[in-house]
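Summary of Year 1 activities. Much of the first year was spent building the evaluation harness for sequence design. The harness presents a backbone, in tokenized form, and records the residue chosen at every position. We chose the following record to illustrate the format because it has been used consistently in internal testing since the harness was completed.
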């Protein structure tokens, strides 16, 4: 009997050790990210679906591109996110190289409040002059000439911009800098700039509210926000002379141009004939070497797996939320970037 009891005790002890080992091995990994607000609806969906599959919890703070970059540089998050790529001069200051992994594309729409008018065409020159404060009336001959079938009203134009720094502003001002010498010489591009004219609104919601409340207003908002809120948007003349409305398809086509290996590309004023001209990538930012701030190799591996999933299986969630999925050529470049991640100098 004693021998049987001893056997039972040994069996129970072995079982307990096995259970503890099992619990330890199945402990959830949690990753922290922060950055761009523009892709937040998509990231929220992706991270929810990824948790169901991989049991890796991802806590993403939608705090803006600038804050996301700062938190990554301070090594307080596992990854950052930005709608504007980091300048080469800033990258060169980093002791740990930062990689840019494109996740999707988005467009910036020009929405307007002209009662009874649902179709409107604009050229790059007109857009720049509106936001410079040079064109002040909707029935200005330059606007009427490209909209001959539209009865444009004798209304004052009110341009509306973002009052907070954002990647959306960076994409829009990057476009204006490319298409207008006057804008390039006097204002330039940036996530936050000194606007020469108009009024500001905080976030997409603030800009949209100002547009809705003011007949004659025009402002830039993300295409997703415009679609979800059924706001009228202008067709914009692209570099090839075609008037293009923002859509999942036309934004995705904007990337059908030369993209460098590191994917740090501006695709505003795209060369693509059917591409929407105010489009841009949004990126996840990650350190090339994943051994920082006492992170484990397991966390590094899970970060790599997450990024690989986002550019492949995760792309299925882009279009339903009005984001443009990555073209195959860009997915291929993103895979190469992800596969270059290391841990203490060794490829993961």
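For this record, the design step produced the sequence shown next.
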């Amino acid at each position: 009997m004693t021998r049987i009891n001893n056997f039972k005790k040994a069996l129970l002890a072995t079982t307990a050790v096995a259970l503890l080992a099992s619990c330890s091995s199945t402990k959830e990994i949690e990753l922290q990210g922060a950055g761009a607000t523009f892709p937040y609806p998509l990231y929220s969906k992706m991270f929810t679906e990824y948790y169901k599959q991989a049991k890796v919890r991802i806590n993403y703070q939608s705090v803006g591109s600038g804050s996301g970059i700062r938190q990554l540089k301070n090594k307080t998050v596992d990854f950052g996110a930005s709608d504007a790529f980091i300048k080469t001069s800033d990258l060169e200051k980093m002791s740990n190289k930062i990689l840019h992994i494109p996740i999707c594309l988005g467009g910036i729409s020009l929405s307007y409040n002209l009662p009874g008018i649902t179709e409107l065409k604009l050229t790059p020159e007109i857009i720049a002059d509106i936001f410079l404060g040079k064109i002040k009336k909707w029935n200005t001959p330059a606007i009427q000439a490209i909209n001959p079938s539209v009865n444009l009203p004798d209304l004052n134009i009110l341009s509306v911009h973002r009052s907070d720094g954002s990647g959306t502003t960076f994409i829009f001002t990057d476009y204006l800098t490319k298409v207008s010498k006057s804008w390039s010489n006097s204002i330039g591009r940036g996530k936050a700039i000194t606007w020469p004219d108009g009024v500001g609104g905080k976030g997409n919601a603030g800009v949209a509210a100002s547009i809705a409340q003011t007949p004659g207003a025009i402002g830039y908002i993300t295409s997703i926000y415009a679609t979800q809120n059924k706001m009228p948007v202008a067709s914009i003349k692209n570099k090839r002379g075609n008037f293009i409305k923002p859509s999942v398809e036309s934004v995705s086509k904007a990337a059908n141009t030369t993209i460098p290996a590191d994917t740090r590309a501006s695709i505003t004023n795209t060369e693509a004939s059917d591409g929407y001209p105010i489009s841009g990538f949004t990126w996840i930012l990650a350190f090339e070497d994943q051994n920082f701030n006492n992170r484990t190799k397991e966390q590094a591996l899970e970060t790599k797996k997450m990024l690989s999933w986002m550019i492949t299986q995760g792309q299925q969630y882009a279009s339903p939320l009005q984001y443009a999925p990555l073209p195959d050529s860009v997915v291929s470049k993103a895979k190469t970037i992800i596969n270059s991640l290391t841990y203490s100098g060794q490829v993961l």
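Residues 311 and 331 are 6 Å apart (CA to CA). Quantitative recovery figures across the full test set are reported in Table 2.
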